Every structure is written in C-alpha cells, then in structure tokens.
C-alpha cells in the first residue's frame, strides 16, 4: 500500500495528542481499578457528566471550559467520596460480592446516561473557546489547538496526579493500599479513609477529563460507552495502576486509532480499542511493562 | 425433572391456546417482548447468577443472533426455527471464544471485555453493508403462515416460537440448577480455589456456562428481525437489552430459575405499560434506579425477600 | 516402602522475592510427615506448588508415578492429592452436606467413572460428617459453625476426595488442647486407613506427637529433614527458631 508520508505524519501527531488526552481519562481508572481494585465501569459516565457541566456553564456564563473543570474538582471529589462510601458499606464490607458491586456501577453508568438524555436530549453539544478553530502549522504538520490545548492540560493533570501519588504521604498510602494492607496499618493510616480519598481523586480527575473531551469533540450522552473499552484497554495494557505504563499505553492506542481512522475511516476506530483489550488480555495480561 | 418439564410445556400450550382464543395482535406483540426478556434474563442468570460472572454484553449476543438471521435471510433463506438454532450456535461460539480469552484471568476482566464486545460488534455491523450497515435492513414479514394445514398470522407464529424457546430455556435452567453441573457452578460462585481443590474443573465449567448463556441470548435475538421488520444497529444493540438482562435477574433473585422469570415478567410488563404512558427514557431510568436500589437494599432480589419472610414466619 | 511424592528442586519467585529456593522433598507411601518453619518460610507456597494452586517455573513434582507439572489443581486432586486450606474456605451458599457432595461428585465419581446413586451419595456425605462429628448440622450453612467445626469441615471435604496423600495446612491454629487432640486423633485414624499425611503446623507438641519424620523450611530453603528427635536438636533449626 502506498501511504502518503504527510498523511501518516499528521495521523501520528494527531494520535499523540489524542493519546495525551486518553491518559487523563484513564488516570482515574488507573487509581480506582489499578490501585484500589474497584471495577468502576461507571467512570466514563462521570467523564460525560463533567463534559455536560462544562458545556452548561460555558454556554450560559461564557466561562472557559478548562477553568470550569478546575472549579468542578471539589464537588466531583465529594461525589466520588460519597459513591465510595455507598460502595464500601453496601458491597466491600459484606465481603466477596463482586457480582453486585459490578451491577451497582453498571446501574450508575446507566442512570447517568439516561438522566443526561432526559435533561439535554440526544443532540451533540459543544463548547466555545478561543482555541477551538485555529491551528499551528509546523512544516507539513498541522496542530489544531482544539487538540493541542486539551493534550497539554491533560499531561499537566497527569503530572500532578503522578506527583501526588509518588511524593505525598496520602499518595504513598494509596500505593500501599494496592500492595500491602499490613504496611498501611503500620503507617497508622485507615485503609477505608485512604480508599475514599483515592476514589474521590479518581472521580475529580474524570470531571476534568470530561471538560477536555468536549473541547476535542462534540458530545452526546452515549459517547461515554465508547470510552469504556478504551480506558480499560489502556489501564490493563499499561499494567494496572502503573502511571508511566498508562501514559505509554494511552499514546500507543491514540496513534493506532488515529492511523486507523485516517486510512480506513473513523467508523472503524472504536473497534481498535477492543482489539487492543482482547489481545492484551490474551497475550500480556500483566501489561506492556509487566514481567 | 420430567414432571417439571411436563408442567412447563402444559403451561406453554395453555398460554398459546389462550392467546389464540383472544387473538389480538397487540397482545402478541406485547407478550413476545416480555417472553424475549424472560429468555434473556434466564440466559444471563446461567452465567451471572449461577457462576457469579457478570456479562454486560447481552445486547451483543442478542444482536449477533438477530444479524445472523439478517445475513441468512439475504444469503440463504431458512425457516425461523432453524434461524433460531443458527443464532444460538453463532452466539454460543462467540461466548466460548470470549470466555476462553478472558476467563483464565481475574473475574473482572471478563466483565470489562463483554462491555467492550458490544461496542466492537456494533462497529463491525455499522461498517458491513451486506447486512444493511448503519442504515439498517428491511425484512419483509409474510402476512400469515401455514402450520400443519392451520393458517395463523405471522406474529402469532413468532409468538409461539418465542413461547417454546422460553419453555426450553426455563427447563434447561432448572435442570442445570439441580444437576452436578449446577453444584459445580455454585462452587465457582462461592470460592474458585476451593472448587479446584475439590476436583471441580472450573475453567471448563465456566466455558460451558458462557457458551450456554451466549447461545440462549443469540436464540432470543434470531427471530427479532422478523418481529420488528426493520433492523437497525441501534435497535439490535439497544441499551434496554443490556440493562434489562442484568436488572431482571438481580431484581427477581439470582440463585434460582424463578428469579429471572419473576423479574422479567414484572419489569417487562411494567415497561410495556409504561412505554405507552410515559417516554421510554423515563422508563429505562426507572429500571436503572431499581437495579441500583435492589443491589444495595435487597441483594437476593424478590425471591430472596419472599424466602426470608417465609423463614421468619416458620420460626414464629 | 516406595516414595509416593517426589518434589525435586522447586523454585518459586514472586517478582523479586524468592519464596522457595530449590526445595526437594520425598514422602513415602503411608508416612506421616511434619512440615515446620517460621512464618513466611514458604510452607504454604510449597503446598500450593505441590497441589497446583500455584505453578512453579523451576523444578518438578511427581506423584504416584505421574508427572504433575503443568497440571491444574483439579487434575491433581483427581490424581489423589488433597489439601485443606490454612484459612477454611467452605462453599458459603451450600449446606455442610452439599459442601461434602462436591468432592464426591467431581473427584470420586470422575475418577471411578461409576454413577453413584443419590442414596449412595447421601450415605457417604453422612459418613464423612459423622467422622468429624458434624452429622447433626448436616443441613446448616457454614456461617453457623464455630472455628473448630469449620476446620473439621475443611478436613472432611479434603478426605471426601478419597486422596492417597492428604496435606493438612495448619488445621489446628487457634484451637484448645482438647480440640487439637481431637483433630490429631482424626488424622491418625485416616493414616491407619492408608492415607499418607503431610501435617503443616506451628504447634510443636502436636507435630512431635504425630510425625514419623519432620522437614524444616526456613526462608524458602529446606534446612533439615529427619527423625523428630534429631531435627529438634539440630543447631541450625534451633537457631532459626530461637534466633541468633
């Protein structure tokens, strides 16, 4: 096949930008699923919820979506902590009931999606900001700001999470929850409290990712479902809870999806993530960087 | 076992005769949908309730059955009962493949993979023009059909087929529950390590369950294109299948065949009634909220609540 | 006497941590072996590798003349290897009788290929419950049991598989003297019926009373293996237990 070089280069660049954004969407799942072992399949629903809030405030009050996302951090953190509390009391405490915990999150995913349909309808919604529209040209490479700005914001967010986890006491306690409950007790930290904080962070991150998403593309309530396969593929491929692994896997998936969309049409892109997920589960369940 | 099968068949025949006597098309349409949900819920429960493995991809298995029928309708027309068999085989094989790839790993990986399966199959179908692509496919349904010299409307025929499938699914579920296989499934749900130590071949049993479960979902989907007349990816992969096939057993109760039946009849009837009076989105919202409420408050479903009540009364 | 179990040079790593380091062990037909070692010395990992719950990358396990490597846990149970778990793992949703029905259905039946009648099955379940003194609770759920009863159920379920070799993983932790004697007597009776037994235990008096031979694991290595009296006097064992 004869592949035009400039098309390929642009596809790879677009993929890297997309991958940076994917890393931010997955960061929350890397915490909840990778570190806390909570299979929060409703995570993309919180992302879309963030998108719609950013949309609502942007359209009505003209506030910049990224600024909105920062303002949304505390309420979404509280929401996440509350969801974890319900999950803990209803499922974790009663012991080994993965089935019902999964059904619970599935119900949340579903209720959120249908509620958004009822409030906003099924039309695509988008936001307005100065960086939506113009592009930077470097040689033959086109960098649309609507991709570049979210990608940079996502990478900044990703960096902050990485710092929180590796450098703060709470962050190290979160890592300990995933590896060694005994060590955690020796640190005199309450594992339930640590998990509640971690889950709150993961949902707060989802809100920011949602605001970034609606900058990149118009959003309707069921878009979240496409992200389920994507985020879990990245999370597993990245090696469950490894932040550097997540970043690499996100970039990889972004590039492969972008190339697929460029050369085979965008309607094929969702299948790529699933293919990734199945291949990973079949051949490298420990992830890219795993042993 | 034989006795139960006879009773189930007798109830089925009685329903069939009763419906034939009333013979209102709307009634056929409405009950077909409810029966379809009974099959889906029962199928989901074979894997979810008995083995404890969550399948979020019911819509995918259902749609596989439906699209097998669309494909064969164009390529190689067959009578609907045979289409049901083919749909069952196709979905069963996909279930087996999914299980083989993911069931050796942690339980949650299987659930995540089934979630993604629906997205991918929908992508494939949307891009496959032969079965209608994103535009959808028309299936012209004959007005009526001759069965053993008896001329009945086609919707009655489809209703009778779905009724037969329901009876078969319920008999199968109850038979599994009380067999060696059912005991094995329950050990997997309770504790897989201990099950292996007792000599239970857990992987093999899980694969049997995913195959059976997927096959019944495919069978439920196979007559669907004829029922609806015009099949679009969005209706075959509809959210209502994914959520109902989980919500119905969870609300009814997952440990026995009665739970999915009760849940499907209750929720199915309520939805049939509610779609007429309120919007279908509100409808689905109620199902979702009920699912969340039940898993938190009544983890053993309606059947569990009734059993507890009976046990409490016996103790007094 | 012929060796029933050969464990040859088993090594098991978890990440960088070496849990077992070239462990070799032989157990003879009909023998009562005690396996001791401090916490975290690799005893349970060794059991898991022998029974197929974990797969060892290095070394071999041969049992009853057959190579076990690569076989899954249930295949090893079918071959005649049964174990109890350190923390009892009953099937929570099943009555005690149904708990015992599982090894009968899935191991004894699968091995002998003969269809047991329901009456046969019930009789055998009752017999097993009788053996551990739980017959009166046949129709109760595991959550109604006390700690001792739970451990007895765990043992009965392992015996239900009609094993040639039974590995009892800390069946006595936390029990009183009379309860320990109860379980020891039970294990002795099983041994008299020809079942080879490996007893993994912390309680030295029980191990000394029960074992014909003792093997000692310390940090994943076998440091002693011999007659009980010799092993407890071995300076290396003493050092490992009391510390330098």
Structure description:
The complex is a heterotrimer of chains A (291), B (316) and C (244). The mean pLDDT of chain A is 85. Chain A has a domain at 5-25 and 44-222. Chain A is mainly alpha-helical and 291 residues long. Helix content of chain A is 75%, strand content 3%. With 316 residues, chain B is mainly alpha-helical. Chain B has 15 helices and four strands. In chain B, the strands form two sheets. In chain B, strands 1-4 form a two-stranded antiparallel sheet. Chain B has a two-stranded antiparallel ribbon with strand order 2-3. Chain B is globular and about 55 Å long. The relative contact order of chain B is 0.17. In chain C, 40% of the residues lie in helices and 26% in strands. The radius of gyration of chain C is 18 Å and the shape is globular. By secondary structure, chain C is α/β, with parallel strands linked by helices. Chain C is built from nine helices and ten strands. Chain C has a single domain, classed as P-loop containing nucleotide triphosphate hydrolases (Rossmann fold, 3-Layer(aba) Sandwich), CATH 3.40.50. Chains in contact: A-B, B-C. The A-B interface holds A 33, 39, 41, 86, 90, 94, 97-100, 102-104, 106-108, 110-111, 113-115, 117-118, 222, 225-226, 228-229, 232-233, 236, 265, 267-268, 270-271, 273-275, 277-278, 281-282, 285 and B 48, 52-54, 56, 101-102, 105, 107-109, 111-113, 115-120, 122-124, 126-127, 134, 189, 239, 243, 246-247, 250, 254, 281-282, 284-285, 287-289, 291-292, 295-296, 299.
């Amino acid at each position: 096949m004869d592949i035009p070089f400039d098309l390929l280069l642009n596809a790879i660049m677009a993929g890297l930008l997309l991958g940076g954004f994917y890393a931010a969407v997955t960061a929350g799942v890397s915490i909840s699923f990778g570190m806390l072992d909570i299979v929060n399949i409703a995570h993309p629903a919180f992302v879309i919820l963030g998108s719609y809030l950013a949309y609502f405030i942007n359209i009505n009050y003209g506030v910049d979506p990224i600024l909105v996302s920062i303002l949304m951090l505390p309420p979404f953190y509280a929401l996440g902590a509350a969801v974890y509390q319900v999950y803990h009391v209803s499922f974790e405490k009663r012991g080994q009931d993965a089935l019902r915990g999964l059904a619970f999150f599935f119900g949340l995913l579903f209720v959120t999606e249908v509620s958004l349909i009822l409030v906003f309808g099924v039309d695509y919604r988008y936001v307005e900001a100065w960086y939506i529209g113009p592009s930077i040209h470097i040689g033959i490479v086109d960098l649309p700001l609507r991709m570049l700005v979210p990608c940079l914001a996502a990478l900044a967010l990703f960096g902050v999470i990485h710092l929180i986890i590796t450098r703060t006491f709470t962050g190290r306690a979160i890592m300990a929850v995933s590896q060694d409950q005994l060590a955690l007790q020796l640190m005199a930290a309450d594992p339930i409290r640590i998990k509640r904080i971690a889950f709150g962070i993961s949902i707060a991150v989802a809100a920011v990712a949602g605001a970034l998403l609606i900058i990149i593309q118009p959003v309707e309530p069921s878009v979240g479902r496409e992200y389920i396969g994507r985020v879990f593929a990245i999370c597993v491929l990245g090696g469950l809870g490894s932040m550097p692994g997540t970043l690499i896997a996100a970039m990889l998936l972004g590039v492969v999806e972008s190339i697929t969309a460029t050369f085979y049409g965008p309607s094929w892109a969702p299948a790529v993530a699933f293919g990734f997920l199945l291949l990973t589960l079949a051949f490298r369940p420990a992830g890219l960087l795993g042993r | 076992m034989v006795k139960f099968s006879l009773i189930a068949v007798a109830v089925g025949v009685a329903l069939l005769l009763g419906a034939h006597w009333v013979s209102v098309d709307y009634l056929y349409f409405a009950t077909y949908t409810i029966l379809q949900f009974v099959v889906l819920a029962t199928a989901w429960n074979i894997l979810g309730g008995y083995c404890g493995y969550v399948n979020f991809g019911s819509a995918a298995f259902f749609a596989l059955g439906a699209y097998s029928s669309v494909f064969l309708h164009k390529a190689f027309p067959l009578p609907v009962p045979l289409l049901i068999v083919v749909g069952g085989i196709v979905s069963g094989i996909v279930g087996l493949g999914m299980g083989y790839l993911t069931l050796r790993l942690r339980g949650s990986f299987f659930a995540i993979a089934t979630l993604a399966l629906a997205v991918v199959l929908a992508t494939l179908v949307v891009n496959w023009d032969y079965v209608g692509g994103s535009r959808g496919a028309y299936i012209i349904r004959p007005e009526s059909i001759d069965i053993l010299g008896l001329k009945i409307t086609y919707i009655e025929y489809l209703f009778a087929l779905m009724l037969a499938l329901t009876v078969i699914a319920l008999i199968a579920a109850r038979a599994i529950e009380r067999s060696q296989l059912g005991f094995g499934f329950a050990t997997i749900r309770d504790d897989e390590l201990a099950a292996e130590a007792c000599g239970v071949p857990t992987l093999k049993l899980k694969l049997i369950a995913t195959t059976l479960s997927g096959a019944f979902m495919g069978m439920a989907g196979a007559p669907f294109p004829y029922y609806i007349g015009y099949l679009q990816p969005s209706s075959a992969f509809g959210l209502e299948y994914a959520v109902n096939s989980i919500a119905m057993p969870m609300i009814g109760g997952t440990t026995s065949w009665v739970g999915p039946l009760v849940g499907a009849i209750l929720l199915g009837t309520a939805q049939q009634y509610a779609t007429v009076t309120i919007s279908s989105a509100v409808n689905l919202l109620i199902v979702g909220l009920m699912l969340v409420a039940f898993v938190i408050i009544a983890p053993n479903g309606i059947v569990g609540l009734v059993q507890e009540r009976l046990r409490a009364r016996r103790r007094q | 006497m012929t060796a029933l179990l050969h464990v040859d040079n088993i090594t098991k790593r978890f990440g960088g941590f070496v849990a077992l380091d070239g462990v070799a062990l032989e157990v003879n037909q009909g023998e009562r072996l005690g396996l001791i070692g401090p916490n975290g010395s690799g005893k349970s990992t060794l059991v898991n590798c022998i029974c197929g719950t974990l797969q060892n990358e290095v070394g071999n396990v041969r049992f009853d003349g057959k190579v076990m490597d690569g076989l899954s846990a249930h295949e090893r149970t079918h071959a005649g290897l049964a174990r109890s778990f350190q923390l009892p793992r009953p099937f929570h949703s099943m009555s005690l009788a149904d708990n015992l029905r599982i090894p009968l259905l899935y191991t004894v039946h699968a091995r002998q290929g003969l269809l047991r009648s329901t009456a046969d099955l019930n009789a055998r379940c009752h017999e097993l419950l009788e053996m551990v003194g739980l017959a009166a609770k046949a129709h109760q759920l595991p959550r109604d049991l006390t700690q001792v009863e739970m451990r007895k159920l765990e043992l009965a379920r392992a015996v239900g598989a009609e094993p040639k070799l039974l590995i009892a993983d800390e069946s006595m932790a936390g029990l009183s003297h009379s309860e320990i004697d109860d379980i020891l007597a039970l294990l002795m009776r099983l041994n008299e019926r020809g079942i080879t037994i490996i007893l993994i235990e912390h309680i030295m008096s029980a191990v000394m009373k029960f074992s014909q031979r003792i093997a000692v694991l310390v940090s994943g290595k076998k440091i002693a293996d011999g007659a009980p009296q010799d092993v407890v006097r071995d300076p290396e064992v003493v050092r490992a237990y009391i510390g330098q």
